[in-house]
Amino acid sequence: MGGAGRFAASLAEHARAIAAPLAAGDxxxxxxxxxxxxxxDTSQLDESGVAKATVESVLENGNDAIFGALFWFALLGGxxxxxxxxxxxxxxxxxxxxxxxxxxxxxxxxxDDVLNFxxxxxxxxxxxxxxxxxxxxxxxxxxAPTWDSPNAGPVMASGAGALDLSLGGPAVYHGHLExxxxxxxxxxxxxxxxxxxxxxxxxxxxxxxxGTALASVLVHA
Length: 221
Prior knowledge:
221 residues, mainly alpha, three-stranded mixed sheet, two-stranded antiparallel sheet, globular
């Protein structure tokens, strides 16, 4: 459980290191700090692009670094959380379909997909319950299937709807433009929305901890 807390603190620290210069008008510094946590090209992003990429990272990493680990910790204890984090790390490092890592990367990505299937949907539900619920559920239902990732789609679509933001869209990765589907519905992201995304993850963490405690009481009653 402490590991999830450390990941949450680290996520907030990195996101706020982007939000602060972005709010102050220092776009170059915000781009630089953003490049530390995302794989997309940040050099040409405007304020909204930086904010959007940061919010997307916060929402997705809320699941990958916090809620997935909490789910497997509740299910299998420390070994379960460790297994999940190992699978997630391997997917992040080698889960790309290039010539060098084709077989190993494919396996890492599929294992991560399986372990993340239930946590991702519980994360999406948490975001929906703690934000604009009806919009989040609508975005989840209609937009998540358009994403290649079976788990990132529900998490980010629901999160975007919950925050009343427009996310997704084209992005440059490793020199190549990727035409990603749109997510959410609402205004373009701004610097202030980064703290809103962090608050959504923070509140969802408390919801998960409360749910875990209640489940433990019921099991041992």
